[in-house]
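User: Could you walk me through two proteins back to back? I'd like the raw sequence and the structure tokens for each, with a short line separating them so I can tell where one ends and the next begins.

Assistant: Of course. Protein one, sequence then structure:
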Amino acid sequence: MNAGSTPLLCPFFGKCDGVLLVNAADGSKEFHPRDRSGAKSMCDLLLELKPGQVICGFIGKPEKQKLSAAGIDVRVGSCSCPIDELVASFSGLPMA
């Protein structure tokens, strides 16, 4: 969620307001809002952006399978943790 000055992990995959891409190499961040008026789902937005890894608070089985089939490593993180902490501990997060 792009709430205020600090982005937070959204607990509801399909209701997220966008995707925050984090470059693990240099820490740069780029927010990609989801157009809620269109038919594009959060899953479709992620498939378009083609990240190698995704951290979400919750994801349904069909969406997880679709992203995994596209080669995206999907993990689940706590919505109470800062984004930077989740990114730094990605390999230790449980698989979705």
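----
Protein two, same layout:
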Amino acid sequence: MFSLTENQKKLILAFFIAVLLWGYASNQTANFLNYVEEQAASFLVDVETKNLPQKYEIKSKSVERAVVRIDYISYFTKINKSEIKAYIDLQQVEPGDNMKIIEVDLPASAKLLGVDPGYMIVNIAKKIEEKDK
């Protein structure tokens, strides 16, 4: 009957582990059963405003929504539109037209490919208080 020595068993086990490691390293973005695949998606999202000082108000904005293009790796799930937040930071604004870059918050598994448009123009005015009328 055929019998393996202890060294032959270790050698076969080491070869099997080496093949598994090679397969994992060469297919980091997709495993053998193709469960994981890269996805590219575009979402039309509303652009929110943050940090507007209380003494100012927004008169007009050049755009209300932006197209956000992302790339992500899918692990049995899809990214929903509700997980993507586009906003402009109005912390340092002056009365008149202000050009602000549209920033995007994404889930950790996603990578931003682009935003169209990449910026927006916001017209800011001082608030008129009741005692000034």
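The chain has a mean pLDDT of 84.

Let me know if you want the two compared in more detail.
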